Records
---
Amino acid sequence: MELYQLTVKELSAGIKQKKFSAVEVSRAFLKRIEQHDKQINAFISLNPDCEMAAKRVDEQIARGEDPGFLAGVPIAVKDLFCTKNLRTTAASKMLENFIPPYTATCVARMQTSGAVILGKTNMDEFAMGSSNENSYFGGCRNPWNLEYVAGGSSGGSAAAVAGLFAPVAMGSDTGGSIRQPASFCGLTGIKPTYGRVSRYGMIAFASSLDQPGPMGKTVEDCIYALDGMCGPDDHDSTVSRRAWKPLRGHIKRSTQFKVGLPKEYMVGNVDSEVMSAFVKCIEDMKKAGVEFVDVSLPHSPYAVPVYYMVATSEASSNLSRYDGLRFGFRAKPTEKEWSSLEELYCETRAQGFGTEVKRRILLGTFALSSGYYDAYYAKASKVRNLIRQDFLDVFQSCDLIMAPVTTTPAFKAGARVYDPMRMYLNDIFTTAVNLSGLPGMSVPVGTTQIGLPLGVQIIGPHFAEEQMLSLALAIEDVAGFVGRTANGLQ
Ligand code: GLN
């Protein structure tokens, strides 16, 4: 076994027992990145201090101190999270040279537990997209097959783990951006309950939907990462004050659940291989002891339109801070000087943002403008509440819900970039979870005929991560996917 093939638990245990050093581990991953990332483009920046940080962990161990349960574990961090003195771009020209003066709480917590940042991963600009093709730094490819996308928006984080460039990665999920790329790349990806993880230091896209979370090769690796990132934080007033009870080592796989299957999710334009993998998983879990019940989420058809109203409205407000004065990029005047302040704003934003980001700012600004606010944003907020209520009703009669993650497996790079509507519709199974603040996750269960990974989604009631993960461990066991590695890299 090479070091870069080990799990989070194996790495931290091996480092603590001095079987290998943290420096050796980070070198093994950095070497792999150097060898293969040209083909994938998973990283926007590498951390020049990575080896130094690993060395500090080794020194702590040598002194007999405990560096924490993630001792020396290298992590890949989506370039949406601020990292002190390490460039953070949100994959935008607007922040191409932005060096944050502080580190996002959830990243800092991982570091306090011993984790070492390898680098910052590629993503869709400001996390807007489903394929990682909206990045100022170029698209990111799928390690299972280089002609295909890694998914988005946390595509770089997914590709980094699937390509064995990092044992675990941090992503963010506003409407599916952890679960979708996890599913496309054969990984477990978790979007925790809204408020489980601090958003402090995570560049805002849609604040009422954004949530950080982990992506890993196994459910257990993600549990380790969750233990590293969850919990109250005085810097973010939307974080729950409930303490996070560490789950590693405690949580048991279980099939003793009543699982709801939403009838609205069983129809429509779902790819046949996605559907058959989902149905097979249901059959297998039935044999393993799970009880399934049919449930209904009647407002599901509105999830995508409501999501794109709410998300773009919040984005238009959040992104107004990029005005050329306070942050990052500022356009240069064509004449000697600007004719007006407005001209500076307009030129800066016209040149600094990519097409998809501009499309969303326009949409959101329109939805919030006076005269249209009630018809669009206010109405979407009301329907959002109905969507949430559907889930609360369903969870009266079942413990968890299972659903597909996406309508199709990974698609070819370039296939959908010019068809935003089609791209948006890919979010049909994921956005309702964010609109409702629920925890959701993707677990890999198999591959298509041509070898592209397929995942299933588990959705839980608010703060029911533990049940969700117990079922995920059982699915992981039965599916037998763990250990299969992406074979697109030569
Ligand atoms: N695909 C969705 C979008 O483009 C979700 C993005 C996300 O979760 N960050 O908005």
---
Amino acid sequence: MDSVENKIEQLRDELNRHNYNYYVLSNPTISDFEFDKKLKELAELEALHPDLADPNSPTQRVGSDINKSFNQVAHKYPMLSLANTYTEGEIQDFYNRVKKDLNEDFEIVCELKYDGTSISLTYIDGKLVQAVTRGDGVRGDDITDNVRTIRSIPLMLQGNDYPHEFEIRGEIVMPWKVFDELNKERADQEEQLFANPRNATSGTIKQQDPKIVASRKLDSYLYYMLGDNLPAGGHYENLMKAKEWGFKISDATQKCRTIDEVSAFIKYWDTERKNLPVATDGIVLKVNSLSQQRNLGYTSKFPRWAIAFKFQAEREITQLLSVSYQVGRTGAITPVANLKPVKLSGTTVKRASLYNSDAIEALDLHIGDTVYVEKGGEIIPKITEVDASSRDMFSEKVVFIKNCPQCGTLLVRDEGEAVYYCPNEQNCPPQIKGRIEHFITRKAMNISGGSETVEHLYNANLVRNVGDLYTLKWQDVSRIERWAEKSAKNLTDSIAKSVEVPYDRVLFALGIRYVGETVAKKLAASFPNIDLLMSANLEQLTAVDEIGERIALSVIKYFENEENRNLVEHLRQFGLQFELSSEVLSQRTDKLEGKVFVISGTFDKYSRDEYKAMIEANGGKNSGSISGKTDYVLAGHNMGPAKLEKATKIGITILKEEDFLKMLE
Ligand code: IVH
């Protein structure tokens, strides 16, 4: 026991010293990886010995949803949440309580409750200076750079009657359309899907790379203003002012004078919300007058002047007719429930996702079962419950298939994975077609055509792997039914042109499991030609930023397969790019090796993106926000004052663009 105590003490001392080096001196002496390893070791020892717990242990610093890599800032006003209610009776109780407490007339503002990530924005002199997540309500992550990429959030306000300084809070959301596209992309990559737009939003907003955030097309709705000199004495009137200044305020927001008007609002939006482009999970009621809000005050957790009413997730009863199995591009098998059609949230549901064999087992599904289907925050309905009491005693239990439904091969399941795969990569038709479809997509080789084109070529026996595309003759294609000479030529022309596609996209196009666009870019930058990548071992691969063991093992496995190595050789002979272009290579140096840069403001000589590329090409790293890890801030015009102050405080070197260019000379 004594030795465990000593070990814990020693780890705490060591980690505290590293924390100090990192956060106070901005001079870390061990790698993040080493730090995290020690922290994990300490956390495990503490979990085994709860009697040795200490609130001042370094393990207690990593709290709530706060991401270590963002700067944490204290909220000027705590970010509270709302009490939830589920029935109209509870809404009536809220109304009566407010009426009794105020003992005077009051108005209620009804709003939609948007389902995303809450954010607090600070504006000084009409400029966005800071955007902070809720965090634990007291402190949150400074994600200003990421938030700047959200188009509906004004960086500079319109008009001139805004207060010198104020905060405005709201929700960052991912529209359904963007969410569906993102998940489709992830499904193509056989990456884990986001369960709902809320998770996708919070996953996006915590990305270290603002470029990824920008590509995800987030949106925002603002619903709460705070500050000393707000324009009006009413919440609603302030929101209308905010709208004039350029903020996105929901058009649904409505001022009500009676409980009947409130009920009508709830009733209307309970169904109408299904036609909105973004997810909502309820309604928020707020007392309008700010002075009445002050009189009502707060409990320890919630304001007494506001309440949330949560919509019921819609569910329906139907019957399970059968289970079918789809085979993905990498051979992953997805079970799908075929249901007796039933109306749910305005659409007819015929199928539900069953995720994987564990999910089927957990539900103890039998064919013919009476099942409950639900559409929660997600668009694909799921079976949430089975009514086993009404089950026919002779009904057949659903047993996950053992063989591939398309080619009959015995399925395999990797240890620790929930998914079954068909290992017959080279001969299983949906896998062959899926790989070719992926190869030709716009973000990969950008060859014209889609799944239908692939289907035609496959059925005409013209392609069996992506290499066959490069020997296709337009004359052969034009012999396929419904293919005119012109479209056949277009296809072969675009195939010929695809040999110019750069190396990182060719890597992506190969369709290696878990190697999406971003990972492909990272791999290409670290292994400038495919021979280096093919011979890389686990250690070399995981040394690359953001490449974990799962991805590394998948890359190794891919190149261990002789057919894949032959394919690469074959494609190389057709002239595809398997190394970084000489132009890119000639610009690469290690002058900035290991240095972390934060870029802020606007520049004269080059764009921000060009500067970012220069940093990476010279061995440096870009980061979204200033922290103890930052080495340099590349400051342009209009660098945010909060940022400047922070950088100066930590003692980070601030470079003007001329200084930076000199460093590279
Ligand atoms: S008002 C003190 N209004 O719901 C008032 N919140 O459970 C604070 N939300 O954390 C919040 N739409 O993330 C408010 N129209 C709305 C909202 C809303 C969504 C979220 C927000 C908050 C949570 C409260």
